[in-house]
Design goal:
Blueprint (H helix, E strand, L loop, with lengths): L3 H30 L3 H27 L19 H28 L3 H31 L3 H12 L7
Helix pairs in contact: 1-2, 1-3, 2-5, 3-4, 4-5
This protein binds hydroxy diiron-OXO moiety (OFO).
Hydroxy diiron-OXO moiety binds next to helix 1, helix 2 and helix 3.
Length: 166
């Protein structure tokens, strides 16, 4: 049986993952309104992926005999200063998530909760990918600068993202 303190911490991370989903969905809506369908598609898939992350926490809490408690979510920002600002925010957000996962891992380690440690290892690897992807897109956008043709090409490339497992 999982401890109360670790259950609370996992519920908090469940909320963070749901917020991530909420944030990327808001970013998707913004990109759609800016005639950037490829960016919008990428963000929408990212939002779905984050919901999948949230459900992994949901299932792990229940599987370990803990109680899932859903908290209210903060409102994500809805106005952005263009694609670079969006990916700067996305990268900063993922870096924050990485440190929260690492903190959770340390807590599971301190409590000698081995199954939660194994569960969190998937997220530790996933965060390497998440940060790398956001940072690569951000660098490409910075290189493109004000070049509209380059922006359209990036939009097309992001629009080709396939759903996870597809
Ligand atoms: Fe973006 O990886 Fe979950 O939050």
């Amino acid at each position: 049986m999982i401890s109360h303190s670790l259950t609370d911490a996992l519920n908090e991370q469940l909320k963070q993952e749901l917020y991530s989903s909420y944030l990327y969905l808001q970013m998707s809506a913004y990109c759609e309104s800016q005639n950037l369908p490829g960016f919008a598609h990428w963000m929408r898939l990212q939002s779905e992926e984050e919901r999948g992350h949230a459900m992994k926490f949901y299932d792990h809490i229940l599987d370990r005999g803990g109680q899932v408690v859903l908290a209210s979510l903060p409102q994500p920002p809805s106005d952005y200063q263009g694609p670079i600002a969006i990916f700067e925010l996305a990268l900063g957000h993922e870096q924050e998530i990485t440190s929260l996962i690492e903190q959770l891992y340390r807590q599971a380690e301190a409590e000698q909760d081995h199954s939660t440690q194994v569960f969190l290892q998937w997220f530790i690897s996933e965060q390497v990918e998440e940060e790398k992807t956001a940072s690569t897109v951000l660098e490409t956008l910075r290189m493109a600068g004000d070049n509209k043709v380059a922006l359209l090409m990036i939009d097309r490339e992001l629009g080709a993202r396939a759903a996870a497992g597809a």
